[in-house]
Design goal:
heterodimer; A: 227 residues; alpha/beta; 7 helices; globular; B: 303 residues; 4-stranded antiparallel β-sheet
Chain lengths: 227, 303
């Protein structure tokens, strides 16, 4: 599903963000990418979402070589990859349902289809009863669920979760991870970028460890090995 | 398609609404720019009318000998009519000149009395020449000055070239100053619109970020700002139409007094040329605004 071969990314003047990174993520897999700040995790997310381009190497998502993706193609890539972040990125003046619907509206979906999809994704994340609430009226965990619902509206093949539990307490964090597991069980490839040791150890799934822009470990049923 | 258009319009009105004061300032600057352009245009129309009025008053008369034979006069008239600079030659006989003079002075008994005491017609027959093209009057005058005929007693050329030159000079000066003012306003408008769109992008940065995240197309992200620029243009042109007509209506009586006897209807001029004036103005303002907003979105709303 994701194939990264010998990818390098440098920032001026002499910052090495990624150095010869190669990894392969199969369809339906759930992978945790762990590492300290500055290890290159976020750069990897940026390359996968087309926000940045690699200086060397090759990136393939599905069967799409996105190494030299055109700017005009980036929106189509992002409809295939759902992304969630630590800060949820919700619109405070829109209800939870409107936040989810917004993702469909800006991509030109018809109102009838939006009406059909929004309740179904809110049901998947367990927020069907709170659709008319505003982001400030729900907990952090629920806010992240809305972000996940929004990421799911395009039925992405891949869900990239960049530090999704960073702003949550352990209970809410575990609930979000359970939700990601549920989504993974539906067949969606989930890439979890985190430095939460407990979560990674609890998952007992594949763990890719990064340090100084390099992949230093790739364990099939790994643990968090960074101190 | 209509759904997309509706959503773009909605976002665009949100841009304007969220920065309402900035939007008002932007539209005000555009209105001032349009007012200066239209004022300059009005000055041009007025000066054109003034020039036409002066040109139409060009008076070229050849006074003929009292004893000139009718046949000789008609012969001279025919020769003058052949000249390319001449449009028309009117013959005023001695008797007609006297009748006209009496009519003009009928309220002046002293002149009429003096004329009666004179006992004879003191006026000369004349040929009144109308130039073919008012712009070439000076050529005609120059030719007539050297035109030889025994029956020409005197030549009267009411040469308006100097007045025309003065009007042209004034118009040119007004145009030059006006162009500078317009250039300043256009530059200001460009900067103000650019800044407004920049601020609109700033206030919408969260939405833009999310739009990018969920895969909104570049056009969908850019379009609301372009539409906002178009709305600014449209509103400013509508307001200028609403403001300028009362202004012209106020100006009209003064023009009528100034150009008494001439048909100078500035309101009618703007009405008959409505689309070519305000339509073109809208297109130009829209073009400038779209340019400014495109620069702003390319710079601040990178997708």
């Amino acid at each position: 599903m994701i194939n990264i071969s010998n990818v390098c990314k440098y920032y001026k003047p002499d910052v090495v963000a990624l150095e010869d990174v190669s990894l392969d993520v199969k369809a339906g897999e759930m992978v945790s990418i762990v590492g300290q700040s500055g290890s290159g995790k976020t750069t990897l997310v940026k390359l996968l979402t087309g926000e940045e381009k690699a200086d060397k190497g090759q990136l393939v998502v599905g069967e799409w070589d996105i190494t030299n993706i055109n700017r005009s193609q980036v929106p189509y890539l992002r409809r295939q990859i759902g992304v969630i972040f630590q800060d949820f990125k919700l619109l405070p003046k829109k209800t939870l349902a409107e936040n989810v619907a917004f993702a469909l509206q800006v991509c030109g979906q018809k109102p009838a289809r939006i009406k059909k999809i929004v309740p179904s994704v809110l049901k998947i994340v367990g927020l069907e009863g709170k659709k008319d609430r505003y982001p400030h009226e729900v907990s952090g965990g629920e806010g992240q669920r809305v972000a996940i619902a929004r990421a799911l509206v395009h039925q992405p093949k891949i869900l990239l979760a960049d530090e999704p539990t960073g702003n949550l307490d352990s209970i809410n964090a575990n609930e979000i991870i359970d939700l990601l597991l549920k989504i993974n069980n539906f067949g969606t490839t989930v890439v979890l970028v985190t430095h939460n040791r407990e979560i990674v150890n609890r998952l007992k799934k594949r763990v890719i460890t990064m340090d100084n822009g390099r992949v230093i470990a790739d364990q099939a049923h790994g643990k968090y090995i960074i101190r | 398609m209509f759904t997309g258009l509706y959503r773009i319009l909605k976002l665009s009105f949100q841009d304007i609404g969220r920065n309402i004061w900035l939007s008002i300032v932007t539209i005000t600057i555009l209105i001032l720019a349009l007012f200066s352009i239209n004022s300059l245009f009005t000055v041009q129309i007025i000066s054109q009318n003034a020039i036409e009025a002066v040109k139409s008053k060009v008076d070229i008369n050849l006074y003929l000998e009292n004893n000139a034979e009718e046949a000789e006069i008609l012969e001279l008239k025919s020769q003058l009519e052949i000249m390319p600079e001449v449009k028309e030659v009117n013959y005023v006989s001695q008797q007609e000149a006297l009748s006209s003079f009496r009519e003009q002075n009928e309220k002046n008994p002293e002149i009429i009395q003096a004329l009666r005491e004179l006992g004879k017609n003191p006026l000369s027959p004349s040929l009144i020449i109308l130039p073919e093209n008012a712009d070439n009057t000076d050529v005609l005058i120059a030719n007539l000055k050297v035109y030889q005929s025994d029956i020409i007693e005197s030549r009267d050329f009411n040469d308006n070239t100097v007045i025309l030159e003065k009007i042209n000079n004034i118009t040119d000066n007004v145009n030059q100053v006006g162009m500078v003012i317009i250039a300043i306003f256009i530059l200001t408008s460009l900067l103000v619109v650019y800044n407004s769109i920049r601020v609109a992008i700033y206030t919408h940065r969260r939405e833009i970020n999310i739009m990018r995240l969920v895969g909104a197309s570049t056009n969908f992200i850019y379009m609301p700002f372009i539409v906002s620029a178009l709305i600014y243009s449209l509103v400013s042109v509508i307001v200028i139409v609403a403001l300028f007509y009362p202004f012209l209506t106020l100006l009209q009586p003064y023009l009528e007094v100034f150009f008494m006897g001439y048909n100078v209807d500035i309101v009618n001029y703007f009405t008959t040329h409505f689309w070519s004036i305000f339509g073109i103005e809208f297109l130009i303002v829209a073009l400038i605004n779209i340019m400014a907003s495109l620069i702003a979105v390319k710079r601040y709303a990178k997708v």
